[in-house]
Amino acid sequence: MSTIPDAGEWVPLACPSYSPGDPTVHEVVKPGGQSTVRCTECGHVRKE
Fold first, then answer.
1. 3-state class of 2 per DSSP?
2. Structural domain includes residue 21
3. 38 vs 11: CA distance, rounded Å
4. CA distance 39 to 45
5. Of 1, 7, 10, 43, which sits with the fewest C-beta atoms within 10 Å of its C-beta?
6. C-beta separation of 6 from 32 below 8 A
7. Alpha carbons 26 and 34: distance in angstroms, whole number
8. What's the predicted TM-score (pTM) here?
């Protein structure tokens, strides 16, 4: 079972703006069922 990351944690996700095919580091801005994450490469913010 996976856990929901806390704010400030970093998670590997593909970024639709920067690198849609490869994971990049994302910072969790606001945790929750639909967490808000920010790509550390390009700054794109989205729900995941």
1. coil
2. yes
3. 10
4. 7
5. 1
6. no
7. 14
8. 0.86
Note whether residue 4 is domain-resident. no
Look at the chain and report how many structural domains it folds into: 1
How high is the pLDDT of residue 37?
A: 97
Please tell me the number of Cα atoms within 13 Å of 26 on its side-chain side.
29
Check the CA dihedral 8-42-2-29 and report its sign.
positive
Following DSSP, what letter does each residue of 4-45 receive, concatenated? PPPTT-EEEEEETTTEEEEEEEEEEEE-STT-EEEETTT--E
Q: Is 39 inside a domain boundary?
A: yes
Mean pLDDT, the chain, rounded, equals 92
- Domain span including residue 19: 10-47
Q: What would the two tokens of residue 37 be? A: 């994450």
